[in-house]
Amino acid sequence: MERVGFIGLGIMGRPMAINLLRAGFPLTVWNRTPTKTQALVSEGASAASSPRELAERSTVIITIVTDAPDVEEVVLGPQGVVHGAKSGSVVIDMSTISPRATREIAARLAQHGVHMLDAPVTGGEVGAQQGTLSIMVGGERAVFERCLPVFQALGKRITYIGGSGAGQTAKLVNQIIVAGTLLAVCEGLLFAARSGVDLQATLDAVSGGAAQSWQLENQAPRILRGDFAPGFMVKLMQKDLRIVLDVGRELALSLLATGQVHQLFRALEAQGLGQEGTQALMKVVEALGGARARLPGHEG
Amino acid sequence: MERVGFIGLGIMGRPMAINLLRAGFPLTVWNRTPTKTQALVSEGASAASSPRELAERSTVIITIVTDAPDVEEVVLGPQGVVHGAKSGSVVIDMSTISPRATREIAARLAQHGVHMLDAPVTGGEVGAQQGTLSIMVGGERAVFERCLPVFQALGKRITYIGGSGAGQTAKLVNQIIVAGTLLAVCEGLLFAARSGVDLQATLDAVSGGAAQSWQLENQAPRILRGDFAPGFMVKLMQKDLRIVLDVGRELALSLLATGQVHQLFRALEAQGLGQEGTQALMKVVEALGGARARLPGHEG
């Protein structure tokens, strides 16, 4: 059985680490803010004093932090995983970062005989808690297959996409579709509200056919009751869409709709609303539409 | 039991009329192209020589034609329904036309003591054949309830939205969401294709979570195998989006995303592709993205 090291005990990482413990994996944890390791230690994990020390004790090292610089710091930094990891061990980065940064980190690790998989997730805090995350994996297939028992402790839909970076690409595809679908839902709701029709009846009518989506089913009801708590924060979606547009620039790829929704989310950030859930996009769509027929629950 | 008159035996109307016959409703039919009535007559319907004559024989008159001028012609024209309909009868318009035109026609009918419901549908040809359409209804609630047995012969999800025009508004909301969601799916596919990842694996990975939608499940596979047959034609979607944007103008309502996707579909129409299915939107998104990494099945 793999000895697992886990770096990054945030909203996602903490419940994921608990699921690994419950699945029986010997677990070592490290977090930038050390107090967050306490809860895991009381559940049976041991704490390491650095990513390096964590790597020395582990055969599989999972990282789930915010962005590429954070991954680079814990993997390649002075006290990083690379200085402790044995040849043949595996780093699984479950953060969402750029495919290019992923491939660069993987190349550095390969110089030390350490494998890397990129394995970003979707499914949010609830999926992390319930072990029902979707996991999109890039890297060598044999390494993926070796790590499958680890993934199965964390998620339900586990898909091998392709070589290094391919998991990150699939995650970015996911975010492009999520953001664009949400914008469509917001614009439909705005049209309904300004037309004066019963919003709930309209939602009921359209949610069973070609307009159906996860965003419509899950976000529209939150919007109608004025609930803008995250779910998934605007500022994290913006980080992901920034990566999408960076990749677009590298590939000379025009992404009209994604560029637009990124700018609309930026208007939310400019209003200090970056910590709200992505469904707060409705506030910008509504402001564009004019102030005359506010949706219920929306502030002045 | 209502005696039903049915006007408009097109792709949608013909199977709907057959379902009414099979449900036992005495049926009179009329179509602008008279030869199309033959199949219905052989199933037990009688043919009328004009909408006026059809209305004389009916207590409920259904119209499903293309656009507002067509509805106005068959309902209010020289040989129109209004000249034959008895006081207390009901016109159910199942076309997709503007809420304003609906209210104007309803007002004209009311002067003759004739009720009107607007009851546009979604679910396409297959839904029409199988009697599983979604039907969104506007008008007086008591008239809706009287006509419920007729609707139940045609569809499954039957929703009363509100007063005259509200059914049309709900249908337009549906089309706003459908078009925007489809654009998001196309842009996600483009990103995946240009990044060089396995498209099927990527679709499998993203289709179970927050990116899930009817458009993703039904249109993305068609796009991947280069199948651009309608489904729902670009030119009909454009008619509906034109109505959306007309209503937006009347309400001084900015619809940024819908305006954008309408213009993208226009590029398709300009290439003579208005008769393809809406999933052909991928061709424009792909052309915008540059020609270097074509999706499989796409022509030069």
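qc> Strands of chain A lie at 4-7, 27-30, 46-47, 60-63, 90-93, 115-118, 121-122, 133-138, 155-162.
qc> done
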